[in-house]
Every structure is written in structure tokens, then in C-alpha cells.
Write the C-alpha cells for this entry.
Amino acid sequence: MRSTKVSAAIERLKKRSNEPYSMGMSGNGLFWLSLSGEMGASTKLCEPMGIDEFVTFVNAYGPQTPKRVSKLEVEFSKQLLRKVVD
């Protein structure tokens, strides 16, 4: 369960960035983020950290997906702005 949470965060990062990110895990349960480079070499992108801290780091790392906004939310925001101006 614990590594599944981390794996899911890595997969979301890969989808957002189209880069070959991977994770490493130490024997005492700390995780780090790596980026695969040329000829199989990987670059360590952060210091080892606990699971919750690591998932928060990975979710904030790289490009972010824009928040989806529906047409109704846009129209409602316009109405609110008109009421404030009036």
C-alpha cells in the first residue's frame, strides 16, 4: 500500500512531463526521485525523504496540469463579478 501511493505519484509525474522519472527506496523506507539519462545513468533529483513528504514533493515537481473549469463555473464567476461591480 505504501509504495503504491509513491508509484502512483511517479506515474502522474511521468504523464505530466513525458520524462523517464523513477524512484529509489532505501532499506529504511526513504524515497528519492531520479531522472534517467544517457547510457543508463540516472540523476538523483532530491534527498531521501519519508513517504508523505516524498509524495508531496513529486506532486509539486515538474509541470502542473491546469485545473478543469466548466462553462457553468465560468458563467457563475462572471455573474459574481457583475454583482460586485454594480
